[in-house]
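Homework help thread (please don't just give me the answer)

Our assignment gives two proteins as sequence + structure token strings and asks us to describe the second one. The first is just a warm-up. Here they are:
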Amino acid sequence: MAFYQAPHDFYHWGAMGQLNIKDDKLISDARALAELLGTSMTDAIRRAVQEKLTRERIGRDEEKRRRYEAIMAIAERASKLFPPGAGSDHSDLYDDNGLPK
């Protein structure tokens, strides 16, 4: 970490209360959104960020669910490859102390 970078937890959440936006198009879009919503630019940006954050979280949750279902389907198919009664009991290979016979 460079000497001029503050650690991530240096500032308490919300302590930095300002954004300095230098993108004219973004400022213009935020102003237009605020006018359409009949609210302040701060509220318009808050709503936009919250809506995007919600969509991203839902999308990630759906991706996690999809991956879980794919893994479970693989496990189901793989379980059919083992003969009935097959298991992971290898007690015949080891003595009472867990050492190979």
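The one we have to describe:
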Amino acid sequence: MQNITAVMYMADWKCSNCGFVKSTRCKPRKCPECGQSGTFEKV
């Protein structure tokens, strides 16, 4: 039997509206700081 290791990479996402940075695997939909949607860009 083979050992398979899944590696999940974290990315830093920055809100272009307020500058809030969040580290997560998936792009956040809404900024928890300013409440804007669709403003996150990968940094």
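TA reply:
I won't write it for you, but here's a hint about the kind of observation we're looking for: The mean pLDDT is 91.
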